[in-house]
């Protein structure tokens, strides 16, 4: 049995990161443009000279939120930014590109009785409609799509999302496996006591996962590899 097969054999539930393992959320609506729009909203209320250079220059909307929260904890504009980002994510989900092999893997797992949940730093309000349009939401159940809260400290690599998913499923960490594509996913899984398989759609993601300590046998370039492992286990 392979390392991935061994982990799957003991998993009664599988937790999926959303942007990456399920789809490319920002394929049609680039994240850099969203970051720019969030910064412009900040500059409507706060002069540029009072905003950190890192915040002004970043192309990552999550980093905009984190930096603003760190610079001005409790500022009322933070809630406005979260709302705007969620609206942008919901729009992005309409043009998101499905990850090759994600749908068949999710349906195979659900068909074999595995419990499924989404644990994403993105908004659940974006993930649920995407899954519904792809006819995948019934595989999870709307209540098992867990996304961003306003407290940025609770996003991955913090294990909060995974712990909420496990609580909702009523299962212990040792019976769970997470599929993620980033260092924060691997760290959150480790902190929650959940086993992990990394999905690397390109060399950059592969290096990120290896740098996070994920061993090479636990990284796949295609989700079809995981689906085949699941199918082989079912035949035994």
Sequence-ordered SSE layout with sheet pairings:
Blueprint: H1 3-9, E1 13-16, E2 23-24, H2 31-45, H3 53-57, H4 61-71, H5 77-93, E3 97-98, H6 102-111, E4 115-119, H7 124-133, H8 137-140, E5 145-146, H9 160-169, E6 176-180, H10 183-192, E7 195-199, H11 203-211, E8 219-220, H12 223-235
Parallel strand pairs: 1-4, 1-6, 4-5, 6-7, 7-8
Antiparallel strand pairs: 2-3
Structure description:
By secondary structure, this protein is of the alpha/beta class. It contains 12 helices and 8 strands. The protein folds into 2 domains: 3-24 and 98-235, HAD superfamily/HAD-like (Rossmann fold); 31-93, no CATH class. Helix 2 packs antiparallel against helix 5, helix 5 runs parallel beside helix 7 (124-133) and helix 6 (102-111) packs parallel to helix 12. Helix 10 (183-192) links the parallel strand 6 (176-180) and strand 7 (195-199). The protein is elongated, with a radius of gyration of 18 Å. 51% of the residues lie in helices and 11% in strands. The strands form 2 sheets. The protein has a 6-stranded parallel beta sheet with strand order 5-4-1-6-7-8, sandwiched between helices. The protein has a two-stranded antiparallel ribbon with strand order 2-3.
């Amino acid at each position: 049995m392979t390392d991935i097969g061994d982990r799957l054999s003991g998993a009664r539930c599988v937790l999926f990161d959303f942007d990456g393992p399920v789809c490319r959320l920002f394929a049609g609506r680039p994240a850099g443009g969203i970051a720019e729009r969030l910064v412009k909203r900040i500059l409507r209320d706060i002069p540029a000279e009072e905003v950190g250079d890192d915040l002004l220059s970043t192309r990552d909307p999550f980093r905009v939120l984190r930096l603003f929260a760190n610079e001005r904890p409790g500022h009322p504009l933070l809630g406005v930014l979260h709302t705007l980002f969620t609206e942008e994510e919901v729009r992005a989900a309409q043009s998101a590109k499905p990850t090759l092999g994600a749908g068949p893997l999710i349906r195979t797992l659900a068909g074999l009785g595995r419990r499924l949940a989404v644990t994403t730093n993105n908004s659940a309000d974006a993930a649920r409609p995407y899954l519904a349009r792809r006819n995948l939401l019934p595989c999870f159940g709307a209540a098992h799509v867990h996304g961003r809260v306003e407290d940025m400290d609770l996003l991955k690599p913090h294990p909060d999302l995974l712990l909420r998913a496990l609580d909702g499923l009523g299962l212990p960490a040792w019976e769970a496996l997470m599929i993620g594509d980033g260092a924060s996913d691997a760290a959150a899984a480790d902190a929650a006591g959940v086993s992990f398989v990394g999905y690397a759609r390109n060399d950059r993601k592969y290096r990120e996962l290896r740098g996070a300590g994920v061993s090479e046998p636990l990284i796949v370039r295609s989700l079809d590899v995981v689906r085949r492992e699941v199918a082989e286990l079912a035949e035994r």
